[in-house]
Structure formats: structure tokens, C-alpha cells
Write a structure and sequence with these properties.
The protein is α+β, with helices and mostly antiparallel strands and 226 residues long. The protein contains 4 helices and 14 strands. The chain folds into 3 domains: 68 residues, Alpha-Beta Plaits; 71 residues; 34 residues, no CATH class. 14% of the residues lie in helices and 29% in strands. Strands 1-2-10-11-9-14 form a 6-stranded antiparallel β-sheet. The chain has a 4-stranded antiparallel β-sheet with strand order 4-5-3-8, covered by helices on one side. Strand 6 and strand 7 form a beta hairpin. The protein is flat and about 65 Å long. The N terminus is likely disordered. This is CCHC-type domain-containing protein. Keywords: Membrane, Metal-binding, Transmembrane, Transmembrane helix, Zinc, Zinc-finger. GO terms for molecular function: nucleic acid binding; zinc ion binding. It comes from Araneus ventricosus.
Amino acid sequence: MFQSRWLPSLVGLRVFGVVGIQISLPFCMASSFCTVFSADAKFFIMSTPETFPEVSPFLIHKLILSTIGKVKIVKKPKPGDLLIEVSNPSQAATLSKLTTLGSLKVNNSVHKNLNFSRGVISERGLKKHTESELVQELSNQKVCAARRIQIKRDGKLIPTQHVVLTFSTPELPKLIKASYLSCPLKPYIPNQARCFKCQKFGHRQQTCRGASTICAKFSVAGHVSS
């Protein structure tokens, strides 16, 4: 029997290991994010045609302080971009309307991933509700997407009581209230990509740059485990 105590290690795109059961989430990671960003957005990407490495970081820092105020974090994820975490909604509103920083033309957009959080609820009382119904009823608690976990048994997909909820806020709540039901939330932890050629994590076999195939059983190059 599939039990909720296994959920933190099993939640993912597709997991094997429970006898006779295949567990899957029928959606890709990117498609399940909300398309509408709330006022809780804290992470922004600032980009400019004139790459930031060509401008003094001290000058950029002073311009951000004078224009937006003291923010929590400023990082450079890639050339030409700055990742900014604001401290309050007022800074977020100012940053979203900002078109120039000193003499630099800038474009600011909300980060597509960091402004969301995901958690899993396990409640039998909600098993008969559709995903759209859950989103509608829980929207006042910042729920903007829901996907029910399914198990595959004897070639058939069977819905479970476990639902992955996406929140339009970076902070994951400890629980949600479904009418009179209190549903604790567990952080959603997707499975890390694994390459079955070099047996390393972080990429898949199709994009592996390894020269030879590594045995998954003995970690030796030159033969494949059977």
C-alpha cells in the first residue's frame, strides 16, 4: 500500500521502487507554474543592452540604493542580468516600473521560478475534487495551480489523495484550510535528473558528454549492467 510517509522521497516526475506501482506526475516542471504573478513577487531580473560587467559594480550598487533603496540580494546570474530580491512590496512596485538606472536603459521582469513555492497535501476528503475545483476553492490562500499525483497499476492510472499545490508566493505555508479541514503541507522535492550513461546527476543521457558508458552496478567503464 502506498503511504504518505514515503511521499517526500517519492514525489517527482516518475519514481519506481514500490512493488507493482509506478508513481507519476502527468505534467512537466515548467508547465505547472502559475501564469499570473501576485503582489508577493520578491525576485526580479534586471537586464540591460549594455552588459553590467562593463559598468562599475560600485556605481550599480549606488544607483540601486538611490533609486530603489536597500534590497536584500543583488546577484549576477549571467552577463547582462542582475537578480534582485526586494525587501518590501513598495520596492517591488518601484522596480517593476523602472526603465532607467542612471544613464543605463534597463528592463525588469519577475523571475519565473523563484516567486513560487510548492507543497504536497494528503487529504482523503479532497480526493473527489478536480484540480480546477481545488484551485478555485483555495485561491484565497494564494494557490494558483494544482496537480494530483497518480499511480500506475496494471496499465491504469489511479488518482491518489496526494496533490501538489503551487503557491504564488516564495514562502510555503505550513498548512492550508480546506473549509473545516486543516491540511499540513510538505515541501515538494522533485527527483533530480540522472544520466544512465555516466551515472551522474544533473543531466540526462541525451545530453551526456561522457566518453564511455559506466556500469550502474559496478561503476566500471566498458560494460553495461544487466
